[in-house]
Every structure is written in structure tokens, then in C-alpha cells.
Design brief:
By secondary structure, this protein is of the alpha/beta class. Helix content is 29%, strand content 24%. The strands form five sheets. Strands 11-10-9-5-2-1-13-12 form an eight-stranded parallel sheet. A six-stranded antiparallel sheet has the order 14-15-16-21-18-19. The chain has a three-stranded antiparallel sheet with strand order 6-8-7, with no helix packed on it. Helix 6 runs parallel beside helix 7 and helix 11 packs parallel to helix 13. It starts with a helix and ends with a strand. The relative contact order is 0.10.
Length: 453
């Protein structure tokens, strides 16, 4: 089960090397440039959206994009110093915002100090056992005197041997340092599905030994999440299964797609029932959702579902204004742009979306049922979806309408008589009589109704 602070959270996700306009490559010779100091002015905005936690990463010294780590103990000089990050973390704590960083533990970059030692010393290197697939009888694609395993065939990313005691000691020591220096509340584990069972077990025990409410969220794009969510490992996982359905069900006028996924995951027989998965419409690795949707007005029912379905919702920086961005075959740069806060707001493609997100966040913040309640489908049609989120002492009925006109939904409900009081659109109320209700839902929007019996 997720920790109470996490299940109640709304995350804001920043890719700092992108937002701050850092150089694409690190020359390791330049003095630190405190670009993280651009972030504090964003905090009022982040909190105005109703976000309560910041996922910030990657941050540590790397060759290029941040996931090719060179030094786990030093903030990337393109972003500043350890003290730059520590000062920012103190401001987050002052505001009551939680901080989650990237834990990139499956692989390192070719500039990682221990890999450099193997390049220099070959079989005599004390770190030869730190890397997966090391073979001194062959050469790497880069011409090294040895071959090694690269992540997903990418030899810029050198896979670590997570079972090696020295690797575990080094990485767990880094986590201890991050907790002590920056007061972090959790980690998002990059490529978590590639981490070994032994490493996941050791990491989970270590983190919870540092603080009992430490939150671990594992990135997994394909397959089931059960191995990551096993006791003692991750509290959460990236919900890529629902991610696709969030936009394609709207584009295709086919709410049956996302309804199937939600039932499979969270319904009465759901395989992740009671697990707080990490829900998102986009992130630093996938196209901006505004570029995926055929009609930008569909952003409103999309986010209404994101904030009301089971899981922990996240907003990726810039997407609160409908920012566009498509990846190419060779670059994710368009997904990770430099942004200046005032200009981004001034030139927003969807200037009304931030206020809508705040309304959704406020309703979720006031409802335990939306944060952690059971899920039960009530109605599904091509452009409409309704479901019930339930706790023993609270029920919330969510009704979504993706059509461009109001729609009256005939809903059959599991209570004889009740009042349905709209929390999202104050003043609207409906009656349940003899197990049925007729609920009119505004176009491209939603109702989130408390059930009063």
C-alpha cells in the first residue's frame, strides 16, 4: 500500500536539464552554473495547480541527458552544486511540498568514474565486476578493449551488475547522502523492470531503514507490475497501460478501451486493486498529450479522468497549458523544452486549463474515496464513462462526457434512494430513485458527485 502522503499527492514533474535550458552535453570542465535557481519562481505556480509533490530529475553529474550518470554524489554542474539543490529542497520543505528524485541504478554513462577505471586498467581494475556482460575477449562498438552490456542495445548506457556488493554499497550510499543532504521523500526508479530482485530487495530495505515513509516508484513500460510491487520493493509503478487509453479512447470515441483497462486493473477482481499506481498523461519520454489528441478540448475530460481514476496523478511541466511536443526517431528534445514561466503562461494554447486542473485537484484533495477508494464501473458508452469510487464511509460517482454537447446518462446505481451532490460544479444536484438516476453531464467535462443516502 502507498504511504498516506503519496496516495493523497498530486505530482508535478520537471525535467530540469530541459526546463532550465542546460547545454545538451557536459564538458566536465566548466564551472557549475546554478540553473536550478530558475525553479523557485515556479513553486507558486505549481502549488496553484494543487500539486503537493515534485518529481525532479535527473539531477546528478552526467554526460548528456542525465540518465548517463558520471557521479551519483555530485549535482550536475550544468544545474549547479549540491548546495544549490539543498537550498531548493529546503524551500520545498518550507512550503510543505514533497520531493522525489530519479534513481538511475540500472546503468551509468561511459564517463562514470568506475567505467573509466576499467578502460584504463582492464582486467586489473578493481571495478571490473561492477558491469554486466564484461568480456575482455571482444571489443565494444566504441572500440574499448572489452565488450559490455548496454541498456536496450544503447552502448552510451553501461549496465551495472546490481548484485555486486560494491555496486550496492555505492548506490545505497548515494541514497543515504540524498536523504541527508536534500531530505528527499522518495525515488522514481528508472528502468526499474531491469533491476534484479536482489537489488530491489536491498534498496527497499535500505530506504525504509532511512525513513519509514520513503516512497519508491518503479518505471516499467511493458508487462505486468507484480514483481516490482512485491512486498518490500516498490510502492508504486508507472501506469503505462492506462496512459495509452487516456488519449486513444478519446481520439477513437471509444471509452470502452480505457474502461477495460481500469476494470482489469482496479475493478472488483482487479489485479492492482488497492495499489496506488503513478498516473500520467505524458512525461519526458512520450509525446505531449496535446499533440496526441485530435481535439484540444478533449484535454478537459482527459484530465478529469486522470484525477478521478485510481492512482496518483501527475502533471508534466508545460502540459498544464496544452504545450505541444513530438519526439522524433533520434531526439526527445521537443518533449523537454526550456520554458520561462511568465512567457509560457502568456502564450498558453489552453489558458483555461490550469484553473480546471486546480478544480480537479481540490475535489480530489477533499475526497478519500477519490484518493484510495474501490473502483466500480457504472456506465460505459462510446463517449461517456461513469464509475463509482467507494470507501466504507464515502462514495463519489464520477461521470465523464467527451462529446461536444450535453448528454443525459441513465445510470443504474447500487443504492435505492440518494442525493448526488456535484463537488466539481457546485450547485448541481441529482436524485437517485429506485436504483436509477438521470445525470446530465456538460460537454467535454465531468461531474464528480458525492453520494448522500
Amino acid at each position: 500500500m502507498p504511504h498516506p502522503w503519496a496516495e493523497q499527492a498530486v505530482f508535478y514533474h520537471i525535467y530540469p536539464l530541459g526546463l532550465t535550458g542546460a547545454p545538451r552535453r557536459n564538458d566536465f570542465a566548466a564551472p557549475p552554473a546554478a540553473r536550478l535557481e530558475q525553479l523557485p519562481p515556479w513553486l507558486d505556480h505549481i502549488q496553484s495547480l494543487g500539486a503537493t509533490a515534485l518529481y525532479l530529475g535527473p539531477l546528478f553529474e552526467s554526460s548528456a541527458h542525465g540518465y548517463d550518470t558520471a557521479d551519483y554524489y555530485r549535482v550536475d554542474r550544468r544545474l549547479g552544486t549540491n548546495e544549490t539543490l539543498a537550498a531548493f529542497a529546503r524551500e520545498l520543505r518550507r512550503r510543505g511540498l514533497r520531493l522525489v528524485l530519479d534513481g538511475v541504478f540500472n546503468h551509468v554513462g561511459r564517463d562514470f568514474w568506475a567505467f573509466r577505471d576499467v578502460q584504463a586498467n582492464g582486467t586489473a581494475s578493481a571495478y571490473a565486476g561492477w558491469f554486466a556482460g564484461l568480456d575482455f575477449s571482444r571489443r565494444s562498438p566504441y572500440g574499448d578493449g572489452f565488450a559490455y552490456q548496454g541498456w536496450a542495445g544503447n552502448y552510451d548506457l553501461v549496465k551495472l551488475n546490481g548484485e555486486h556488493p560494491g555496486v550496492q554499497e555505492h548506490l545505497l550510499g548515494a541514497v543515504t547522502r540524498w536523504v541527508e543532504e536534500f531530505g528527499i521523500d522518495g525515488l522514481r526508479l528508472d528502468a526499474a523492470d531491469q533491476l534484479s530482485d536482489g537489488f530491489l530487495d536491498a534498496l527497499g530495505a535500505h530506504c525504509r531503514g532511512l525513513r519509514s515513509d520513503f516512497w519508491l516508484m518503479g518505471e516499467i513500460v511493458f508487462g505486468e507490475y507484480h514483481r516490482l510491487l512485491a512486498p518490500g520493493r516498490c510502492d508504486s509503478a508507472t501506469n503505462y497501460e492506462a496512459y495509452k487509453g487516456l488519449y486513444s479512447s478519446l481520439n477513437d470515441r471509444n471509452y470502452y478501451e480505457i474502461a477495460y483497462a481500469l476494470n482489469r486493473q482496479f475493478g472488483p477482481q482487479g489485479i492492482y486493486r488497492g495499489r496506488g499506481l503513478y498516473s500520467f498523461a505524458d512525461n519526458h519520454d512520450v509525446d505531449r498529450v496535446a499533440s496526441r489528441l485530435k481535439d484540444p478540448a478533449l484535454l478537459y475530460p482527459l484530465y478529469a479522468l486522470l484525477f478521478s481514476m485510481p492512482g496518483i496523478p501527475s502533471i508534466y511541466y508545460g502540459s498544464e497549458w496544452g504545450l505541444a511536443g513530438l519526439r522524433t526517431a533520434h531526439s526527445d528534445a521537443a518533449l523537454r523544452p526550456a520554458l520561462e514561466l511568465a512567457q509560457a503562461a502568456q502564450h498558453a494554447a489552453q489558458p483555461d486549463l490550469p484553473a480546471a486542473l486546480r478544480r480537479l485537484a481540490d475535489v480530489r484533495a477533499g475526497s478519500g474515496a477519490l484518493q484510495r477508494g474501490d473502483y466500480r464501473e457504472v456506465h460505459v458508452a462510446a463517449q461517456q464513462l461513469a464509475f463509482l469510487r467507494s470507501l466504507p464511509d464515502e462514495q463519489v460517482l464520477v461521470a465523464l462526457n467527451a462529446a461536444d454537447e450535453p448528454v443525459e446518462l441513465p445510470l443504474r446505481l447500487p443504492f435505492q434512494n440518494a442525493r448526488l451532490i456535484d463537488l466539481l460544479n457546485p450547485g448541481a444536484e441529482f436524485r437517485v430513485q429506485n436504483l436509477t438516476a438521470a445525470v446530465t453531464v456538460p460537454p467535454r467535462w465531468a461531474r464528480m458527485m458525492s453520494v448522500s443516502t
